[in-house]
Structure formats: C-alpha cells, structure tokens
Write a structure and sequence with these properties.
Number of helices: 29
Structural class: mainly alpha
Radius of gyration: 26 Å
Shape: globular
Helix content: 40-55%
Number of strands: 4
Strand content: under 5%
Strand order of the largest sheet: 1-2
Length: 665
C-alpha cells in the first residue's frame, strides 16, 4: 500500500540523503559491516531482510545519544555493551566482546552510522536469527502484522509505551466532553489505536502541547462519517507538522487503520513537544541556577531540553550529596537517584500556601530493584508525578519513558530560584519570535538531524542548512563539508568554513539573493541575515512542490496570484491585488479560496465580515489557518501572519492551498 494522503502529497520530501552527522569522518574507511559480516555472514541469507526501519532508527539514535553524553558524535569501545543495553537489544556478551576486539584493531571508538550498520549486519547474519528473536521477544515489544514498504522490515511497538501514553491521554482529556466516546481507553487493550481513528483525540492532544494550534470550531465532533474523520486526521497531521513533528511518511489512512508503530511515534512527538515547552531559558529564567562556574549564559542557552533536564537532575542530586547521572536509562535503574531527586524537589512548606510533602526515604533500603522502584513511585504519586513509568520501566531503564517522567517532574516541581546575580545580563535572554518558531518547526518537520531546538546555535555549523539544500534539490558536495566531532582547537574555523560553503551554494547553485550575507553571519547567528536565507529556502521548497505538481512548470509569486484570482473569480468571490493586499488582514480571501477549493467547507456564520476589530480579525485568522490544514494543505504560517499581512508568509498560505487544489484536479 502506498502511504500518501493529501497531507503527504502536498509536502512530500525528496529522497533523504544520509545525515551529515551520520557520515563517517574523512579517512575512516572501515565499517562494521566488514567486521561483523566477515565473522558471521550467512551466504544463503537475503540481505534485503536486514533493513532498519525509520522507527528502529529513531530508537537507535535515542539510545546512542544517551551513551554519547559529551555529544561529540562518538562512543568508546568500552561503552558498546552499554549501548546495546540502552537500545534494549539483547546480544550475548561474548559477541559484544568479539566486536570490541575487532574495533580495537582499527579504532577506539565508533559513530552512529557504524552502530546502525552493526545492527543491520547482525540482522542479516546467522547469529542475527537469535538476535532478531531477542528483539521481537524482548519484554514489552509487540510485532505488528504485515511489513513496511522496505522489503521484509517488520514493525514493532513497545507495549510499555502504549500503556504510558494511554494513561497520560486518559488523565489529560478526562474532562473533555468531545472525547467521551473513546476515553478512557483501556491501557491493556488496543483501545488507543481505535481511539485515534476519528482524529479528535489527536487534535486535542496537539492543543494541549501547543495551545491554540487548532481552532476548535474546525474539528468535526458529531455524526462523524469516513469523510469527516479523514478531515480531522488531515487537520491533526498538518497541525502536528506545524508544531515541528516529523510526519512526512504518515498519512490519514495509517491513523484511521490504527497502525500501532506510527500512532505511537506520532503521539510521542506530540507529548514530548508539550513536556519540553517550558524547559527553555527564555521561558524559565530560574534555569540560570544551573549555570556552572566558568560557563557563559550563551553556553547554557545552547543546551537542548534533554541536556537541561539532565543538568537539572544533577543539580539537585549534588545538593543531596548523591552520585550524578549520565543518562535516564542505565543510571536510574536502581531508583536511588529518583529517591534523592524527589526528596530534593518536594515542597518543604517554606512557601506561603504550599503545604509540605514528606518523601519517605525508607524504601531506598529495599533489596530488590523492582520493589524499590515501586516504593519510589508511591512517593512520586504524593507529588502527582507518577505518570509515564511503572516500576518495570524504571528497572529496565526505558530511556523514552524515564525522560518523560523526569520532564513531568520538572514541570511541576522545578525547585529552582532565580539567582540574585547582578553580573548576569538578563536582557540577553530573548524569547523566540513568531518568525523564528515558524522556521524552526518547518525544519524539524522535514526531519533534519539533529533536531533544531535553538534556531541560531543549532545551525551555526550549517549542517542543517546543507540538509535543507538537498530537500530543495540543490546538490551538496559532502567532501567539502566538515563533520563533527570538531577539534577543540579550530572548531570555529571548521564551522565557519561550512557556513561559507553554505552561502556559496545559495549564491551559485540555488541562485538566491544573498547580497551582504557571508558565512560569518550564519556562524555568529545574525538574526536578520540568517532569517533571510531560511526564508528563501522555505520559499524554494514551497515552489518546488508546485513545480512538481505542474510537471516542472516554473512558478513564482505572480503565477500564484493569477491562479488565486482565477479560482476566486470562478466562484464569484473577490480577488486580491497581491500578497500585501490589506483585505487579507480579515482572512476572508483565504477563507473564500478554501471554500472555492472545497465548496461548502467554510461556516461563514461563525465569522465576522464587516468592521472587524483586531480580536475579530485574529478569530477569523485562526479559523482560516486551521481550515486550510483541515482540507489537506500543510500550512506553517500562523494566524498573526494573516492579520498583520506578512506578505512572505501569506504567500506560503496561498501556495499551499494551490498545491492542495492541483493535487486534486
């Protein structure tokens, strides 16, 4: 079955090239395929069955990141066994030792691509037969019937994660009357995969993660039919993309059919975005308490939410005189770190109106890990923070669920105080602008690696920019690209060389207008000039989709305006003069175009059309953006862009609607 809905058709990505962070460093020619296959290769086995699915790849990447604590892109040979355990992959100890011995002959470390090749090779070998059985039978993992489009790849999902997500959703939406027909779901059944089938739960969860993403008026809630359910799913998928979820290979049909691994993958992205929303310095200045001696504010601002969570936990553990953590998987299995963390963050009654909560530490002396974990969770329940993990999840060190557990604990009880340090330049902590958030979410929705958490610092080596070039069909000579890990001395020079090449590509290959923009501007995070390049990348990506749908016919702003006006005129609706037309501030031209594309879809009785106040304009705009997504257009612009008639973002709205209409001609 081909997995494409209107959503994935409108903004389907070109074939992805290997991530630059996964490419081998120059001069490092050996691969683990050579090492493993020379020892274990079964010549009669078809290698096509060794594919690593996108879902497996994501799990492997998360495991690698847990072990690669210094984030240099490599792990040492001595950490290989720990890496397999972090990935929840069972492999005999003697095999791991053999691999370490082979690795030692060539190098003392390996990168993520080599680890992925190792897993892929193991799946293709005789020993891999046992390995695959271990993967499929490991506790909490369920196989999914059927295979993916990648030959022979069988998908699986985590029963533990399903239970955790069901409990979280049940609690989050327990008072929502629109979800009563499917919730509460039974965590011990497959209720969840049926519950998402009409799109309502997904829409509600997106709004819980990022408030007001979806206008409630656009959700079909009553007398649902297959068509109206499909609309809800399109709305959910396009809105998930707009908040930074990677949904390119997920279609409405997949969710309607309840494909378990895809449902859980999407839900995790949505939940994670919500959990991480406030783990950011500009939204929580008390995080400055985590600043270390000799560290600048800029250094702290560059940390990802995961890194900030680990530092936060270690901050409190240090206060408690307890050992620090390197990860939220193997290091928390005995629950002792959690005991100390709970005891540190629990209210002590020193704030007016907040009663103290006593954490009973006696359970830390329990001899059995499982019983100790259960006692710990009873204490977490006193804080209302037992969500996401069961005792078995702690003991097994499930990295995803433990990360969610700690994030939820942080959100409820950060227990940090903003330091009274006059030397800190508070004015340098700037919140993310609307435009910056739009570009960041757009990049993340395309699946760039690594994920962009902080727009400027995370692209200062241009590696993400190169991936975006490939997505707009601009060839990148990866031999010219410096790849991590960068040397301590000269790292800035390596990154600057990348940025210079990125600007060169923009000028010579993409034919962008980059007057006055140099590599140093990207590397230094010059806001205005960096956004100028990102805008042209986003614009070209949008136009390329129209050109693909139009069999290569060149498209520019004038072509889009002509199409918009022809479509509006054919349906007896007013036209626009340009993307700067002031009438767009009412959102009525956008709503009229949506109604022309899908007649009868717009509820004009819900709108104010004359003598609009600013609030009424915004109300119309919220409805317009959600309706565009509902009919299948992947729109990244925000309601405020229409109200303020931001011509660049207005163009993308009309272009996305044009792409949606062309797809259905």
């Amino acid at each position: 079955m081909t997995r494409h809905s209107a959503l994935s058709a409108d903004f389907s990505s070109p074939p992805q090239q290997p991530s630059p962070r996964q490419q081998q460093p120059s001069g490092f020619h050996f691969t683990f395929q050579d090492v493993v296959c020379c020892n274990f290769q079964d010549p009669d086995m078809d290698n096509s069955t060794a594919s690593v699915s996108p879902e497996e790849l994501e799990d492997l990447r998360e495991a690698f990141a847990k072990i690669d604590v210094d984030n240099n892109g490599f792990i040492s040979k001595d950490e290989l066994d720990q890496l397999f355990r972090a990935a929840n992959l069972a492999l005999p100890g003697f095999r791991v030792r053999e691999m370490v011995q082979e690795l030692t002959k060539t190098s003392e470390r390996l990168d993520f691509q080599q680890f992925t090749q190792m897993v892929q090779s193991l799946k293709s070998t005789e020993v891999g037969k046992t390995f695959r059985k271990a993967i499929n039978k490991k506790e909490g993992i369920c196989n999914v019937a059927g295979t993916s489009e990648q030959a022979g790849t069988q998908h699986s999902y985590s029963e533990e994660e399903k239970v955790a997500f069901v409990n979280w959703i049940n609690k989050a939406l327990e008072k929502d009357p629109d979800c009563k027909h499917v919730l509460p779901a039974d965590p011990n059944s497959n209720d969840l995969f049926t519950a998402v089938g009409d799109g309502i739960v997904l829409c509600k969860m997106i709004n819980l993660s990022v408030e007001d993403t979806i206008d409630e008026r656009t959700i079909n809630k009553k007398k649902l039919t297959p068509f109206t359910s499909q609309e809800n799913l399109n709305l959910a998928l396009n809105s998930a993309s707009a908040i930074g979820c990677h949904v390119v290979n997920i279609g409405a049909e997949d969710l309607k059919e309840g494909r378990q691994h895809l449902v859980l993958g999407l839900l995790w992205q949505i939940i994670k975005i919500g959990l991480f929303a406030d783990i950011e310095l500009s939204r929580n200045e008390a995080l400055i308490a985590l600043l270390r001696d000799g560290e600048s504010l800029e250094d702290l601002m560059k940390l990802s939410p995961e890194e900030l969570l680990l530092r936060w936990a270690n901050y409190h553990l240090e206060e408690a005189g307890a050992p620090k953590l390197n990860n939220f998987s193997s290091d928390i299995k005995d629950s002792k770190a959690y005991y100390n963390l709970l005891n540190q963050v629990a209210p002590k009654g020193d704030e007016e109106g907040i009663p103290p909560i006593n954490i009973d530490m006696s359970g830390v002396r329990e001899k059995e890990d499982l019983k100790r974990a259960e006692c710990m969770l009873e204490q977490a329940d006193k804080l209302g923070c037992r969500q996401f993990v069961m005792a078995t999840d702690v003991v097994r060190g499930n990295p995803k669920l433990n990360l969610a557990f700690v994030a939820n604990l942080f959100n409820k009880y950060p227990a940090l105080k903003k330091p009274e340090n006059q030397d800190i330049d508070w004015s340098s902590i700037e919140g993310e602008t609307r435009e910056e958030r739009t570009f960041r979410n757009w990049m993340n929705s395309l699946g760039v690696n690594p994920r962009v958490n902080h727009l400027y610092s995370d692209i200062d080596d241009a590696l993400v920019i190169f991936q975006l070039y490939q997505k707009i069909k601009v060839p990148v000579d990866w031999d010219r690209v410096n790849k991590p890990p960068y040397p301590k001395l000269g790292s800035n020079m390596r990154k600057l060389e990348n940025c210079n090449y990125a600007v060169e590509l923009g000028k010579k290959e993409a034919k962008f207008s980059l007057v006055g923009i140099a590599g140093r501007d990207l590397h230094a995070g010059n806001r205005t000039l960096t956004l100028a390049l990102l805008w042209q990348l986003m614009r070209r990506y949008t136009l390329n989709i129209l050109e693909d749908l139009g069999d290569g016919q060149k498209v520019n702003d004038d072509v889009i305006v002509v199409w918009v006006n022809n479509t509006l005129t054919q349906h007896n609706k007013p036209s626009i003069s340009s993307f700067k037309d002031t009438s767009i501030s009412s959102s009525l031209p956008v709503l009229d175009l949506i109604d022309a594309i899908q007649p009868g879809s717009i509820r004009y009785d819900l709108l104010k059309t004359d003598h609009l106040t600013e609030d009424e304009k915004l109300n119309n705009a919220k409805y317009a953006i959600s309706m565009a997504r509902k009919i299948g257009a992947r729109v990244y612009a925000l309601p405020e862009d229409l109200v303020e008639v931001k011509s660049k973002m207005v163009m993308t709205v009309f272009a996305c609607l044009m792409a949606r209409a062309m797809k259905h001609i």
